[in-house]
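Protein fold
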Amino acid sequence: MPKAKKFDELEVLKKAEEVFNKKGYNGTSMDDLVQATGLSRSSIYDTFGDKHGLFLKALGNYQDSQNSAMEGLLAKTDSYKKKIRTIFDYMINDIVTDKSRKGCMMVNANMELNYVDKEVAQMALTTMENMEQQFYTWIKEGQATGEISKKFPAKGLARNLYNNIMGLRVTGRNRPDYDTLREITKISLSLLDQ
C-alpha cells in the first residue's frame, strides 16, 4: 500500500513555480526544489516522476491560475471591447506589480525550452491558440454588433492583439511602468475603434 502524501500538492507546485520562474528550468537544480518545497528528493520523484514532471505540473498550475484570475475579471462586463481591454489591463498590472521582474512563466518557459522540449512547446502553442481564439470570438461578435471596427479581419486582429500582449511581457521586463505599457496598449487597442 503506497504511503499517503503528507503535503499540499498545490502549495508544492506554487513553490516550485517560483523557483522555476526565477531561475529557469535549466538553472533550477533538484537541491533548489528540495529547499523550496521542503520535500525530500524521493517525495518529489514519487509524486512527480522527475524534475521535468514537476516543471510541467507547475507550468500547468501557473496557467490554470492565470486563466482563473482573468475569468473572474471578465465576468464583470458584456462589452467585447472592455473584455479585451480587461485582458490588457490585467497583463499590465501583473507586469508592474512583479517587483522581481521574473515575468510570465509560460513566456519564459517557451523562450527557454521551445526548441528542445515538445511538451512545453505544445503547452505554449495551446495557450497562444486559446487566447487568439478568445480574441477572435470577441472581435467577431463585436464586429457583428458594431462595437468593433470591421476595417481589419477578425483573425488578423486577434493575432495582432496576442502578439501585442507578448510584446508587453517582453517590454515589461525592462520598462515595468504603467505609463509606458498603457501607451503601447492604447495604440494597440485603437485598432478596435470605428
In short: The two ends are 65 Å apart (CA to CA). The domain at 1-62 is CATH 1.10.10.60 (Arc Repressor Mutant, subunit A). The chain has two domains: 1-62, 77-194.
